[in-house]
Amino acid sequence: MVPQEAGREPELRVLRGRVLSFLSEPQGRDDHASYRFIEDGAVVIDTSTGRILWVREWGEGPGGGASAYEVIDHRPHLIMAGFIDPHIHFPQMQVIGAYAGALLEWLNTYTFVEEQKFGDEAHATRIASRFFDELIRHGTTTAAAYCSVHPQSVDAFFTEAARRDMLMVGGKVMMDRNAPPGLCDTPQSGYDDTKAGIAKWHGRGRAHYAITPRFAITSTHEQMAMAEALAQEFPDLHIQTHVSENLAEIAYANELFPNYGDYVGIYERFHLLGPKTLLGHCIHLSHRETEVIAETRSVAVFCPTSNLFIGSGLFDYERQHQHGVRIATATDVGGGSSYSMLRTMDEGYKVLQLRGQRLTPFRSFYHLTLGNARAMSLDDRIGSLAPGKEADIVVLDSGATPQMKLRMETVHSLEQELFLLQTCGDDRAIVETYVMGKPMKSALAA
Description:
Number of strands: 16
Distance between the termini: 24 Å
Structural class: alpha/beta
Strand content: 15-25%
């Protein structure tokens, strides 16, 4: 390591360890062509830009002719791209673990009560700080988040994301019916608030604004038309909503929109489907709905922990995959019971086991990184370790707990190690989380 002046930021930061990065979606159990693995590797980061310069064998050195560089030796841990969560609810931190029988009961009893608090700017600011702490502790560097109906919640969310320089997608929910008065906007105010949020936040630093009609049940025809107008005015923005999570929800949506054929047909009618549309859940889809999602290149977001917790159903991964549907995986906090993407994939594996399907460890970690980046149309910036990519990185310890350490004595392949991390790992397995090349998890304890 080249000596540095006290207090001076190094020109390069070099992370040494076992480097794993995906190149494509794994086909089969161990598709070696789908990833790059370096047993003793170096990820070289330009600290002035927060981008990766090189990913190489350690013996090749940092390169670049820098006069000062810092080496952080993470051996024997795994270095990967930071985890990405494409469906999470920022105002639901204090809803996790709330006891209820099913989705609509859970929403009305707990969620809507908590979300009303986000009209208070101080509360929204406090929860935003805690929210991003949790993401970093669990190795998540990017997420697509639902804020509350209040513009203050959006400001708190993006302000905190900007303070930490994190790439985030988010937006205020639009909902003008079937919720408490304190959570209802109007078609016009929902449009106006969203447009103001776009002007204030979209493209500012690493912020991406998402048009967010919560779901068809909480939006009138008039509000859905306003969401459609926003999508036409801002065609490059993400759109996020929910569909086909729960049988009672589906029946109610079809009752409220009786002439649209099916649940997906509501969003289809209002031209809200497309390559940057994130559709949470997609459990009970008809053949037609599956075909429409595939044809429009919309994304079905698999949320296994919440689907199990709320008892909504079992996602049919193979059916969606065979029809060419783009699939992402997400925590769905606070219906989901953990911020950990490792725990999420563990539950996802179990869901598919119950369906007689198999999710390989390599495909699981593909989803956590490059797969979710592709689903969010962000893979040109994040999701893999490659020159020019933004240096959002996670370091994983496969022996983080006594149980894991003992199991590692009998692990003899990368596949087995990944499956152990997925099955037994949680925030304790996250050694460090880097955002734009800066160590963030260790800073939480400082």
